[in-house]
Structures are given as structure tokens and as C-alpha cells.
Amino acid sequence: MSLLPPVTADRFVPAPLFRRLAAAVYDVLPLAGVLVMAEALATGLGRLLLGAEGYGQHAGLAGNPWNTSFVFLVCFAYYGGFWVHGGQTLGLRTWKLRVQLPGGGRIGWWHALLRFLAGLAWLVPGLGLYKALHAPVWMAIALSLACLIATLASRLPDRAAGTEMVRLLRDGRGG
Length: 175
Hints:
About 65% of the residues lie in helices and about 5% in strands. By secondary structure, the chain is mostly helical. The chain has a 3-stranded antiparallel β-sheet. Helix 1 packs antiparallel against helix 2, helix 2 (about 65-85) packs across helix 4 and helix 5 (about 125-130) runs antiparallel to helix 6 (about 135-155). The chain is globular and about 60 Å long. The two termini are about 25 Å apart.
């Protein structure tokens, strides 16, 4: 159940960059908790199936493509689930933002997937700089953060998925 009243067309405006960036940063905190729990589950399952000694010989989950896929799916389930069921992650709810179809409709799983994949674009340059060119970590992080801001400013995830992120207003005046 939403804490905010239903939103009509005259009660939302495009979300400003600062709010979108703040919501993205806020969402990292609960996602980190979800990922810690998911990795604990994967580690426990790996130890159960391989035994503690066998698990240790295989260096745990480090570099395992199945684990990378698992983490990817957990992240998509986190974001996609919130977007499809109510249009708000915890960060979006805190900053009074919502992901929706133009006109106010709820997005579907296909929109969520396109939005999620386009939203990952900011990671590619930093990872490429670090992995392929062996640049220092600080440089890769700086490039990734610059790309995150550019991705949010250009509204790339919304344009790719045909969605919009709006600021929810208590009245039709804005603010």
C-alpha cells in the first residue's frame, strides 16, 4: 500500500537531476544489504554442495560466471520488482519520485528490463578503463561517476525503455 495518494496527470512533473542522483545513491544501501544476504545464501549452498574443503579449493565464488549471473539477476529483481509493483524503489519513495509510463501507467517487466540494462551503461567505461587498460581504480571510479551523472542527465534508461521518472507532488502547483 502506497503512503502517497494516487497521482493524476496534473500532480507530477519531470524529476530533476539532483533528486534522481540522490535516489540512485540512496538505493545502493538497501541493495548492498540484499546482495550480502544473496551472497551468503550462495556461499552456504556452495559449501553444502561441494563441502567446505572442496569449496575452498575452488576459491569460493570469486570469478564464477554463475555467481556473476546470480548477482545480476538479484539486482534486476530488486529494481525491476519495485518498478513494476508501484514504480518506486526505497530511494525513489524517499525522494518522492516514481517510474511510470508516459501518462501515469505502471511499467511492465519488459520496460523494467530495458530500463535496467540501459541504466548499467554508466558502468561500462569505468570497467573497460580498469580491466582493459589497467588504469588505477580511482580513475575508473571517477570515470564511472561522471558517466552515471551523464546517464541520469540524459535520461538514457527512460528513453531506452519508453518510461519516465516523475516527481510526485502533493498538489498541482509543483514543489
